[in-house]
Structure formats: C-alpha cells, structure tokens
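Protein 1 of 2
SEQ + STRUCT:
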Amino acid sequence: MSVLNFWSRRETGDRPHGLHDILSGYSIEVMPRTAAKVEDFQALMPPETRVYIAHLEDTPIEDMVATARRLHEDGFRVMPHFPARIIRDAATLEDWIKRYRDEAGVTQALLLAGGVEKAHGDFENSMQLLETGLFDKHGFHRLHVAGHPEGNRDIDADGSTRLVDEAALWKQDYSERTDARMALVTQFAFDAKPVIEWAERIRDMGVTLPVHVGIAGPAKLQTLIKFAVACGVGPSLKVLQKRAMDVSKLVLPYEPTEVLSDLAAHRATHPDSNIEQVHIFPLGGIRKAVEWTKETGGLEVARTA
C-alpha cells in the first residue's frame, strides 16, 4: 500500500476518488494564539464544523474560554481540551467545566492525559477525569478521548499495547454505562495501514466507539517532521524521514491525499468499519488546511453531529 503522496491538483486536474466522503464532517484543531490570527472563521470554515481548542501547559484558562466563546458565537461546535496532567484538582476541573458552559455555551470536551511528563496535581489520565462525574453533572455528554493506533511509549514503556488496550476497553465500558456520546480521536499519522489495522483489532476486542483519525494538514516537510517528533508520532514517522532523504523533494508541500484515499478505500469496502471521519491538525496553518479540504473534497458544508 502506498503511504504518502505529494499530489498536486495542478498536475492532475481533478480529485482522487472518495475524498469528498472521508473529508465530509471533518473536525479541526486550533489554539488561542492561532485562532487570534484568523479574522473571520465564518468566512473560512463550513458552518457547524467541530473545532477543538488545544490547551497547552502555559495557556491561561481565560484565553481558552474566550476562544471557545468566539467560536461558539460564530456557530461552530466547540470542543476544548481537558489535559488531565495540567489540572490541579477536582475543584479546578469543575471551575473549568462551569466556565466553558456558562461563559462560552460549550458542553463538549476532549479528555486526554496531556503532553506534560509529570502531573501538576491529582490527575494522570482521562479516565480519572471521567470518574469524577463532573462532566455528567454539568451536562457535558459529548466526550471524546484519545486512541493510539501506533501505541504510546508514555503509557506502555515496554513498547506493547497492553495498557492502551485496557484503557480503550475501559472507555468503551464507560460509554455503555453512561449517557456520554464518545469517540476515539487519534494522533496524526502518515500511513493509513497501522490505523486501519488498529481500528479492526480494537473492534475485535469489543471496542466499537467511532474512530476519528488524525491527519496532518498541508505543510512543509520540515515542519511536519518537527511536530511529529515533538508529539511522539510512532512508526509512520519513518515515511516522512525516508522522504526527507530525497533533497529534491524537501521543498515540495506535503498533502495528506494518499493516506486519506487509503482510508476512504477501506471504508468503501468495509461499511462496518468504526473509522467515522478525520480530524485535521493544521500544522501548516488553519487557512491552508481549510482551503485544501475545499479544493480537494469539494466541500461546502460540514456534516458534524
């Protein structure tokens, strides 16, 4: 299976088959500082697009809530990050939840461990956040959590998938015993094959939560490698590293056409697949990522539930 393609619309003149469906209903990620650079989101993105707001360690909650309020008022489905390891305690968690609800009109969230090595307080992972019952108490019933197609060395230091598999099963059980509408959102990858194999494997284990596959938006190859290393991307990083060895291709922009085509082909032949949609990390810029989805998928409106 081919895993990466520096495809150009200028050369082909049309769109690869199946990209409209796989891109329809996509979600996208922003940060307060990157969102501040976008003058008009309504003129840029389809209405009701789900927009995640990444919460980095040094970002004040005031900036997060202000960004969430702006996007909510613009008509988007806003899903701020709740990184467990930067939340001091249950009181802080409840304060954040209430501020998003009361000040920004937000009742959706992405729960994850977070990128810091050492917890700042009482929480280490998203399961502990869920166990507080605070999201349910305050009407947050759309809760997404992390999935790990390429494993996670921070969780399974031995390179196995034992603990991430146990976590996936726990999250499945939580979705069945509560009213939460959940999905597994993955880190960005550059090869569809391990993502597909993982989705099939966890489904065989009994994890039927929808999978939202992370992809990197159009960007320079050097930019992608920098982010991939920083974010702990797994074996699919080798695809970029191999490409980088060809000096003549370093200046060519990366576009995730091939990985999306492979995901679309899999869904077409496996209608029971739990791969539901894609989540875009706009590493080369929000505008560039959104314009690419329009040109590549022919999209006009989002179909996000």
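Protein 2 of 2
SEQ + STRUCT:
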Amino acid sequence: MLKSMKIPPLQERRKANRLIFFFKVVEGLVPAMPSQDFLTPVRQSKRRITPKHFKDFKANNIVEQYYVKNSKCFTPILCKTQLFRNSFFPKTLIEWNNLDECCSPRHS
C-alpha cells in the first residue's frame, strides 16, 4: 500500500522530521531552545577527511561523525552510552553534517 501511494518508509519520514526540527532550532525558530546552548559551530579547516562508503556495508566509523559537507556544520557531541548516542541532538547532528550544501532561493 505504501508503494502504491508513493509514501516513503517510516524511517525516512522520521529522519526528515528530525532534520526539519533541527533546522528550526539552528535558525532560531524554536524560542525555547536557543541553538547556542546546545550546538557549537565546527571550526573549518583546509584538511578534508572523507569516509569510504559501500552500498552493502554499514560500520560505525568515528570519521563519519566528524565529516562535514556543508557550511552550517556543528561539532559532534561526544557520547559515552548508546542510549545518548541515539537521542535527538547527537543523532541528528551527524545527519545534519552529512547533508550536502544546498542552494535554496532564500539564501541566493
């Protein structure tokens, strides 16, 4: 039924909603959560580390957490437990840093 209605899987919809909420926090659209209290902008360096990706293999590579692809990246939050690693900010921050730089009409 999902395929016939062209609805993305639940996992993709949850990821999209997390990234939308994260964007609102970053842009200051959520007054109860000022971004400077939770997020530290990443220091841009000239050195680029690019992790290797394979279609059929998934690994928890530490380099993946520090990989940045856009100009609005933030320093990853260090996590000691798996429970905290899968919470909103640490998980979404890594996904946010892996987003490509986009050219939206608003920022052009």
